[in-house]
Amino acid sequence: MKNRIYFFTGTGNSLKVAKDIAASIDDCEIVAICKGASVDVPDEIERIGFVFPVYFFGLPNMVADFLRKINIKSAKYLFAIATPGGVSGKPLAQAEMILSKKGVNLNYGKKIRMSANYIIRYGPIWIFNKTAMKWYDKRINSIIHDVKSMKSNKIEKHSKRIEATYEKYICNVHDTDKGFHTNADCVACGICVNVCPAKNIKLEEGLPVFNHRCESCVACIQYCPKKAINYENKTQKRKRYTHPDVKHSELSNYYKQSINKNNV
Fold first, then answer.
1. Above 70 in pLDDT, residue 10?
2. What is the pLDDT of residues 47-56, one digit of tens each?
């Protein structure tokens, strides 16, 4: 059986989860959800997973759009893993609703708490120390066991109240970068360009320029080695967070691979 796991991430948390699951499954590839990634799934892929953070109590905009467009032909088993940092909302219910409208069944869904890190609003919470890693290992091993055995479970119920809150905030997500600015510490390394899943950033005259296609993942802020990118006057003194097992070079390579597969 061939397997594929799609992920979306801003700090590497969801990629870490995808990597841990993929490592336990034979013949499993990892594909990034990013601008230019193909939505066509080869016929031979029989088990498909989606791993994503939680934005505004629901799915990241790019993930929701990807699920609406993905062309699933012959998969036998679909699973979704959400990686909330705090209040988790109803992202799995939302994913199930989108897929069901396509006539596709989401067989399994779980959440695994990761470090909260939306730096626009707060600094990182629940960093991965030994205690947190022990909890994570127990949780991820349980998920891996379920996915390997192709277990099904009941997906969380949809909430109109949470959906209304989600819609209120997600509709403005592309304009998040209007608050971004770069200070004199920028060294034009291009990391922000490479870790942006939306291909929203270009370097012009040695400085990043944001083109208002932002997905609010804030990878550009988190991965900047000089802390040169900030949001308004709110992030200058906040600690940055990226998952210790996911470097910027690995993340950007997944984006390149996903786009190359689609010959974009």
1. yes
2. 999 999 999 9
E-strand ranges in the chain read 2-7, 28-32, 45-52, 77-82, 108-111, 180-182, 201-204, 207-210, 229-231
Mean pLDDT of 113-139: 85
Can you tell me the distance from the alpha carbon of 99 to that of 50, in angstroms, rounded to the nearest whole number? 12
Q: How far apart are CA 118 and CA 122, in angstroms?
A: 6
Cα 34 off chain centre by: 9
User: What one-character DSSP code corresponds to residue 212?
Assistant: S
For residue 42, the model assigns a pLDDT of 93
Whole-model pTM over 0.85 = yes
What are the angstrom distances between the C-alpha of 167 and each of 71, 80, 164, 170, 198?
A: 25, 21, 5, 5, 20
Number of Cβ within 10 Å of residue 131's Cβ equals: 9
Which residues 6+ apart lie within 8 Å of 137 measured at CB?
none
User: Alpha-carbon distance 98 to 255, whole Å?
Assistant: 24
- With contact defined as beta carbons under 8 Å apart, do 235 and 180 qualify? no
Compute the distance between CA of residue 192 and CA of residue 95 in angstroms, rounded to an integer.
29
**Residue 43 burial by CB count (10 A; 0-12/13-18/19+): exposed, middle or buried?**
exposed
- In a 13 Å sphere around the CA of 172, the CA atoms on its Cβ side amount to 7
| Residue position matching structure tokens 């510490």 | 185
Question: What is the structure's pLDDT at 262?
Answer: 59
Q: DSSP code of 158?
A: P
Query: Residue 62 to residues 77, 174, 213, 220, 255: CA-CA distances in angstroms?
Result: 22, 10, 10, 16, 14
**3-state percent breakdown (helix, strand, coil) of the chain, nearest 5:** 35, 20, 45
